[in-house]
Design brief:
The structure holds two protein chains of two kinds. Chain A contains 14 helices and two strands, in the order ααααββαααααααααα. By secondary structure, chain A is mainly alpha-helical. The longest helix of chain A has about 35 residues. Chain A is globular. The mean pLDDT of chain A is about 90. Chain B has a domain of about 210 residues: Dipeptide-binding Protein, domain 3, CATH 3.10.105. The N terminus of chain B is likely disordered. The chains are: A mainly alpha, B alpha+beta. Chain B: Belongs to the bacterial solute-binding protein 5 family. Chain B: Keywords: Coiled coil, Signal, Transport. Chain B: Pfam families: SBP_bac_5.
Chain lengths: ~325, ~525
């Protein structure tokens, strides 16, 4: 366990360095991002003034370590654009993304697992083809297309557009919040259902060819129980792995879906930060995303131990 | 093809006209029978915007969304009316001395800031001096270059002493980067708590989600009719359209004609407003082959501007000369080769000794505005027929801005902002001491003299004549290749009335807007 934690810390440090370098490699800085071409009209003295204001006059190495040092003391930086600390901003945006990720994953599991089992129940039959086609559609229809189409059709034909109302936090207005989460969760869930469906299908097919299934069948275990306990139970490990991975990606912010449905999640926070070249904001937020990913991975491992005694023994 | 395009354009223009007429009629009718009937209209307006302001400090705001919000919170000494004429603002009147070297402003009485403190001449002195100070890094600093001293002899009077007459000064004072701040405020405070003299005050802000203004009851002019205005951030333009169709958003301004078209429906009308900003192929006359005026003229003669407009922007716009300010607008036909003329272009290339052709490295931004890459590709195709090779370098907008600022290009496909006064618009580009002259890549003693004359003359007709000469000079020397101006599209649902869109994109007429 200790080794895993050390490896995770090394990963996080790597992410921090990488993001820091990438951000500096992008052309432009906070001054030109704010002023655009008007920055050409700045006098040298004005330029210096602004560089000092944004801390751009410090050597890169100083910028990096002062940021990292601040992170360890819980100071993630300040967004001049939002006039709020990054910690405050993240405290608002991260729950939005977590909520969206949970709903999407639940929807994806509800679609993906039954569909996968349906497909696997009789391989190469029409019902398998149906499952495969749905899965293929989920994989190949881009999220932005599905999102804009759903939104445009529902808004213009039915006047249904909860996302046009300004975001309501779960604690403030749960009913509106759930409505606002509906369409984005469907779009994301549909996309993620595809890999889950395929993983389920493959895993179920593989488990079913095992001897113990034949034995159970011979012992007269009823088909429903056989499917649920013996087959699915043993197929869960790859499904959990796949779900954990997808959940981790979702925590990185489903940027496109958050843009289209105006959800103030963490993906949009990073995007705005990059557009505005707010270095500290982007560095800290990406670090938090990476941390979430690591935590989800650890949790997935814990889940393995719970569902599969063999992992516990190893 | 051409006829079809024109048909679409005609239809759209008709719709725009109808919308304009409708707005005018509805805008006038309630005012006539009951001119004192204020405050009953009220209502809450929601405007859909793709981004929230990147700063709330008016002296540093250049982002469109920031300017639009701040215009409603702060006041300026002078203002623009709907036709972009300069009209009194916080200054009730102003008068220049005989020699033009002293300008005396008489301030409006009874004006207060949002925090209740009184606005007076010391605030004007404080604001103008702070804008002049380099340490403030105010973006309009150079607009006050001619101001040598600022005196506040009494509470309602401000006297500016100039180094040279400056006819552009009143127009320059009307922009939000010249907002009058209270001498008690600091930038850090104003970043979170705006304190202006405008028709609205800030009520609430949720960063990157929404910003809500409330009517300022103590406003010096006619009080705003709306109770609140919410700028709601919906990052995706087509999602704004959806929000308008479902009735969540009542007003939005689009630049992209395709998006505007989709917004038009039973309850939403779209009005077109010609913009001051202009599309141009900027040439850097200080680099390589472009240093030869004949090469530049060859380029200008080889371009059919209407074709660029038709292919890149669906014909939505008007071919333009340099000056787009309504009162000084250049005649687009007053240029060498008003029509595309390949023979003439070949002749110019011959004169330059470049009959084998030239290669021009051209930077293009991607993502900054919808038509940039299409314009560049059309220009490239047209110029190829004249043996001129445009080597396009398509850059992400941040990279484009970096190169543009450094004047590191032979040519640049650009969309530049225009201004109501032609001196404010081009003085900074095409005078040898202008702060954007390096980027403009061209200046001459004749232009310097003409711009100086334009600033000195206060006679409108004389000024028109001077700026017509400037325009001609720029075209004859092919300083740049001016292409076209486009429209902005104001989409409004039927319950919105009394809003007038402006050519500079300003939303200042929110103060006369009502929602039923």
């Amino acid at each position: 366990m200790l080794r895993r934690i050390l490896a995770a810390l090394a990963t996080l440090l790597g992410v921090a360095v990488f993001v820091f370098i990438m951000l500096r490699a992008i052309p432009g800085n906070q001054i030109t991002a704010g002023l655009g071409t008007e920055a050409a009209a700045l006098t040298p003295a004005q330029q210096q003034q602004l560089e000092a204001y944004y801390g751009l006059d410090q050597p890169l190495i100083v910028q990096f370590f002062s940021w990292l040092g601040n992170v360890f003391t819980g100071n993630l930086g300040f967004s001049a654009r939002a006039q709020q600390s990054v910690l405050e901003l993240t405290a608002q945006s991260l729950p939005v993304t977590i909520e969206l990720a949970i709903f999407s994953i639940v929807l994806a599991l509800l679609i993906g697992i039954p569909l996968g089992m349906l497909s696997a129940s009789r391989p190469d039959s029409p019902r398998d083809a149906f499952g495969q086609v749905v899965g293929l559609a989920g994989l190949s229809i881009p999220a932005f297309l599905l999102a804009t189409t759903l939104l445009a059709v529902l808004a213009s034909s039915f006047g249904f557009n909860p996302n046009g109302e300004g975001y309501a936090y779960l604690v403030d207005d749960p009913w509106l919040n759930l409505q606002q989460m509906l369409l984005p969760s469907i779009v994301l869930g549909f996309g993620i259902a595809a890999p889950i469906m395929r993983t389920t299908r493959t895993a179920v097919l593989e488990i079913r060819s095992n001897d113990f299934i034949r034995t159970a069948k011979a012992k007269g275990v009823p088909p429903r129980r056989l499917q649920a306990k013996h087959v699915l139970g043993n197929a869960l490990v790859p499904i959990v792995t796949m779900t954990g991975l997808q959940f981790g990606y979702l925590l990185g912010g489903a940027v496109v879906v958050e843009q289209i449905f105006s959800l103030p999640g963490i993906g949009r926070q990073v995007l705005l930060g990059i557009q505005q070249k707010e270095y500290a904001l982007v560095q800290s937020t990406v670090l938090i995303i990476a941390l979430s990913f690591v935590i989800v991975n650890l949790l997935t491992d814990v889940l393995y131990r719970m569902i599969d005694p063999r992992v516990r023994a190893a | 093809m051409n006829g079809g395009n024109r048909g679409v354009r005609g239809a759209l223009a008709a719709v725009g006209l109808a919308a304009a007429v409708a707005l005018t009629i509805t805008g006038c009718s309630p005012a006539k029978p009951a001119p004192t009937d204020e405050g009953t209209a009220g209502g809450a307006l929601v405007i859909g915007v793709t981004s929230d302001p990147d700063t709330l400090f008016p002296w540093k705001a250049t982002q469109f969304q920031a300017v639009n919000v701040l215009q409603n919170l702060y006041g300026t000494l002078t203002e623009f009316d709907a036709d972009l004429n300069v009209v009194p603002g916080l200054a009730e009147s102003w008068e220049a001395s005989e020699d033009g070297l002293t300008v005396t402003f008489t301030l409006r009485e009874g004006v207060t800031f949002a925090d209740g403190s009184t606005f007076g001449s010391e605030d004007v002195k404080f604001s103008l001096e702070a804008i002049q100070a380099e340490a403030t890094a105010a973006v309009s600093r150079t607009s006050l270059a001619s101001v040598a001293a600022i005196e506040a002899p009494d509470e309602q009077t401000v006297v500016l002493t100039l180094t040279a007459p400056d006819a552009a000064l009143p127009a320059n004072l009307a922009v939000i980067n010249m907002a009058m701040l209270s001498s008690d405020d600091t930038e850090a405070e104003l970043n979170t708590t705006p304190n202006g003299t405008g028709p609205f005050v800030l009520e609430d802000r949720k960063a990157s989600q929404s910003l809500t203004l409330a009517k300022n009851d103590a406003y010096w002019g006619d009080a705003a009719k709306l109770d609140t205005v919410e700028f709601r951030v919906i990052p995706d333009e087509s999602s704004i359209v959806s929000a308008m169709q479902s009735g969540n958003v009542q007003l939005a301004v689009f630049d992209d004609p395709l998006v505007a078209q989709t917004a038009e429906s039973g309850t939403v009308t779209v009005e077109k407003t010609p913009q001051l900003s202009y599309h141009a192929l900027q040439l850097n006359a200080r680099r390589g082959d472009l240093a030869d005026v004949n090469v530049r003229l060859a380029i200008q003669c080889a371009v059919d501007r209407q074709e660029v407009l038709d292919t890149a922007a669906l014909g939505e716009g008007e071919v333009t000369g340099p000056i787009t300010s309504p009162a000084y607008r250049s005649d687009p036909d007053a240029r060498p080769c008003p029509e595309r003329d390949l023979d003439q272009a070949a002749e110019y290339l011959d004169k330059a000794g470049k009959s084998d052709g030239v290669t021009i490295k051209t930077i293009v931004s991607q993502g900054e505005y919808a038509t940039s890459v299409n314009e560049a590709q059309n220009l490239k195709a047209q110029l190829a027929e004249a043996n001129i090779t445009l080597e396009l370098e398509v850059l992400e907008s941040g990279a484009f801005v970096d190169r543009w600022i450094a004047a590191d290009f032979d040519a640049a496909v650009a969309l530049n902002g225009g201004r109501p006064d032609p001196d404010g618009m081009y003085g900074r580009y095409f005078t040898s001491t202008g702060n954007l002259n390096q980027v403009a890549g061209y200046s001459s003693p004749e232009l310097d003299a003409l711009f100086a004359e334009g600033k000195q003359s206060s006679d409108p007709d004389e000024r028109k004549d001077i700026y017509a000469q400037i325009s001609e000079n720029l075209e004859d020397n092919a300083a740049w290749v001016w292409l076209f101006t486009s429209y902005s599209y104001t989409a409004a649902s039927s319950e919105v009335q009394g809003f007038t869109p402006m050519a500079n994109g300003s939303l200042q007429y929110l103060r006369t807007t009502t929602v039923n």
